[in-house]
Design brief:
Blueprint (H helix, E strand, L loop, with lengths): L3 H16 L3 E2 H10 L5 H13 L3 E6 L3 E6 L1 H10 L5 H13 L1 H9 E7 L5 E9 L2 E10 L2 H26 L1
Antiparallel strand pairs: 1-3, 2-3, 4-5, 5-6
Helix pairs in contact: 1-4, 1-5
Length: 171
């Protein structure tokens, strides 16, 4: 039988593979913690080791939002060891992804990030994607980080209203 750490890693890889895209770290953590698979300190170690070993890649959005996605090496590892993951865990993951599908699709399709551009200003990058294709892609240059942060937070809350406004007024 696989070690507990190996099971955590396989669980995460299976979840990422079944989701078909990146998943926010808090969503993965909630699944593992709520089902009693691990404690917080083990999770931190697991995420770190998985990234170091090239099984997952991370993307950070803003100052607080981190997403994991499975790498090609992670996919190969999962294919090789998937039978070490119990049918019960696989079923729990399928149920979890089904119950959280809408939220997950929103998380995967919506991005809001900011950075300092080459002119010294900050740029807020706001996007909506469907099937990895950009539907809306907006870049706003602002004078400071607090404004950029505010814009990215507002985008997360009001993106549907803004998208509807654009469609209504441009078409």
């Amino acid at each position: 039988m696989a070690s507990p750490l190996a099971v955590y890693k396989l669980t995460i890889l299976y979840m990422l593979d079944r989701a078909g895209g990146e998943i926010p770290v808090p969503m993965i953590s909630a699944f593992l913690l709520e089902n009693g698979y691990t404690g917080f300190s083990s999770l931190v170690q697991t995420y770190s080791e998985m990234e170091e070993n090239g099984l997952v890649s991370t993307r950070t959005e803003g100052e607080e939002r981190t997403f994991l996605s499975i790498t090609q090496e992670g996919e190969e590892t999962l294919r090789f060891f998937v039978n070490d993951l119990s049918a019960e865990i696989r079923d729990q993951i399928r149920v979890f992804l089904k119950e959280n599908g809408r939220q997950l699709r929103n998380e995967q399709s919506l991005t809001a990030d900011y950075y300092r551009n080459s002119f010294g200003n900050f740029e807020a990058h706001l996007a909506v994607r469907e099937k990895n294709e950009p539907v809306v892609d907006i870049r706003l240059t602002v004078p400071d980080a607090p404004t950029a942060i505010h814009i990215t937070e507002a985008w997360r809350e009001k993106n549907q209203e803004i998208y509807a406004f654009l469609i209504d007024n441009l078409f």
